[in-house]
Specification:
Blueprint lengths: L6 H13 L4 H20 L7 E5 L3 H15 L4 E5 L7 H8 L5 E3 L2 H9 L5 E5 L11 H11 L4 E5 L21 E5 L11 H4 L2 E5 L14 E4 L21 E5 L6 H12 L5 E6 L1 H10 L4 E4 L12 H8 L4 E4 L7 H13 L4 E4 L1 H4 L15 E4 L2 H8 L3 H6 L1 H12 L2 E4 L5 E4 L2 E4 L12 H14 L4 H23 L6 H18 L7
Parallel strand pairs: 1-2, 1-4, 2-3, 4-5, 5-6, 6-7, 8-17, 9-10, 9-12, 10-11, 12-13, 13-14, 14-15
Antiparallel strand pairs: 15-16, 16-17
Helix pairs in contact: 2-3, 3-4, 5-6, 8-9, 8-16, 13-15, 16-17, 17-18
Amino acid sequence: MACVVTPGQMKQLERITDESGVSYLEMMENAGTGLALLILERLKEKVNKNVLFLCGSGNNGGDCFVAARLLEERDIRCTVALVCGEPKTDISKENFRRLKNVTILTEYSDIIDNISEDKYSIIADGIFGTGFHGELPENIVELFEECSRTWAHTIAVDVPSGGNSLTGGVSEGTLEVNETVTFGRMKFGMTQYPLREYCGEVRIGEIGIPENADIRLKTYINIIHGPVYGISQKAHDINKGDNGRLLVICGNDTMPGACVMAVGGALRSGVGLVQVASTPFVTRMIASRYPEAMIQPLKAPDGYLTEDNLDEIVKLSQKASAVLIGCGMGTADGTKALIKKIIQNISCPKIIDADGINCIADSIDIIKDKGDEIILTPHPGEMGRLLGKTAKEVQWDRLAAVTELKDKTGAVCVLKGAGTLIAYKDYVFVNQTGNSGMAKGGSGDVLAGVIASLTAQKISPFNSASAGVYLHGLAGDIAAERYTRQCMKATDIIECLPEAFKQGDAASSSHFSA
């Protein structure tokens, strides 16, 4: 299964390909051929067969030169605009020399005039490649503004110019294209927002990378294609104990709903037994909403749990196959002390979410020795508190943030948000299910419950986190279709989990083994 790569990893794969006998010139020929074939496919629906290539001076421009040459051989009228001047790399120079019956534009004013005349059915953006970062020059922004005013079908070559293939950021003025043909492998930045929105439909163009070359990469990054195979394949003669027992330590008197939603997510995800240990008020709410759950009211005179509850919680955990900690617990000093001692004194797998994370932000070293049995599920703000960064800094380079936390703790780390990342050891998985309608209070609590439920069923922490994120997002997509993104609620995600499990199991092709 082909992986997702950073720009640096793509360069490594290209070196491996060159060493295997496929030269860089041949890789460019393969890339340009893929681009030409896509354009030919799009031209079938067009009366006007004119194609404009906006070319940079690097290898992206070279890919365009190959495509233009091949299209001209098919009697397709092509115009090549040298937006950044003459080609500078040896292989792009070679392919530029091979052009014959192609119109070449070198003057900026001519390029602008040609675009504004709206005479092209397809415009290919091959100005900047996967190494771009920073801001687009003003003249390129102007070119893209003209392109956006045309009726042309727009195709990005490898990545929309102005997009950061490492972080997913975009420069102001980046052209939002109809589709992107990216070569060799999907680039990580294309899985993250806002760049993901600018790529349109993404297609992978083969360039000759040898089979199994990806295993030589230090970190393996991939898109989650489905939940763990067989999650719902239960033997006919199992009992509730075989399906695991989850202990939920969540909620306080001012935030009972977080616990309610976590329990709902857990119950809908297949765990055999759920026991809730919380304040009397929270446990009463659970009992009224979910009679399937067992409750254990704990002493909480101030409305929240403290270290005075430790002994009873440790005793309860001895029957559990996983423990969920943190949703809606608050960050009172007594709660902080309790959560730290729970981590140190409970041996089964622990899912730490929300306030559970906030309570240990100043002491994440306590996780290090227990990392392989812990799942951390921060949103960007919580991740920032764990790493001493702002949420904006986390969002600027989400891959770096989740990798740093994984390295510091040894835990399975889930960085929530659009394009959720799951990192553990040398693996990073990227989720592509879910939608903006899930940006509502309680969605994260539901996710924590789903992941905890799967973990309690003896699925490995990394697999539970990956499958849970995928299914939670899929349930969110079903809820958005049913209720609209505007109107859907976190509790709607819970009610759509059965359909997500049904669809996910039918479509599953992934066997997670990390």
